Description:
The protein is mainly beta. The protein has one helix at residues 101-113; strands spanning 2-14, 29-41, 62-65, 70-74, 118-122, 125-129, 133-154, 160-167, 180-186, 191-197, 205-218, 222-231, 234-235, 244-245, 247-253.
Amino acid sequence: xxxxxxxxxxxxxxxxxxxxxxxxxxxxxxxxxxxxxxxxxxxxxxxxxxxxxxxxxxxxxxxxxxxxxxxxxxxxxxxxxxxxxxxxxxxxxxxxxxxxxxxxxxxxxxxxxxxxxxxxxxxxxxxxxxxxxxxxxxxxxxxxxxxxxxxxxxxxxxxxxxxxxxxxxxxxxxxxxxxxxxxxxxxxxxxxxxxxxxxxxxxxxxxxxxxxxxxxxxxxxxxxxxxxxxxxxxxxxxxxxxxxxxxxxxxxxx
Length: 254
């Protein structure tokens, strides 16, 4: 496209007084008309913005640490803390039984302190026939004050396709509160961006449960991993929550 501008200019040269005489004025004057045309062209060059392509090396689960102590740790490198050696047991003393609920709460908190927060699929292996659909759960474990969790799925688009994202119930406290789920599929790339967020001005949710449900469809025969390659979970104070990710394996039969 573009813009076109046309300008016409008329100049009259002649003897003063004589140039304005009727008919005879043409003998004492000269008229010149200039035509000028300007054109401005506008050229648009389209560019295709593509999502990054993830290789198998990007699909391995890892723990990113925390904001205060960032570190990268693979899931197979995590080790359960070894208990410290205990001193020889002393003869028990007779004490009255305690009915305080504080002791039970402290014990439960201590038990959860060493637990690693994870996000995984349920089931982790699934076999379908071409054209069939099934629902897989996205499960979180041992999270504390989880408020929002955007993540990126990766799979083989020639084998499976993620058709729909469903509520899982964990972030909504079993359906008592509405949560916001935003999703953007890139089926030709085998990627799916999903974000789940609790209502504003509400605390996060702690514990374990089903975060979302994924409706997957078998496209063609083969085996495809279903992986969470990026995750950015945050608590109600907008602090990052480190999560260990894993992947599921889906096999499609003819």
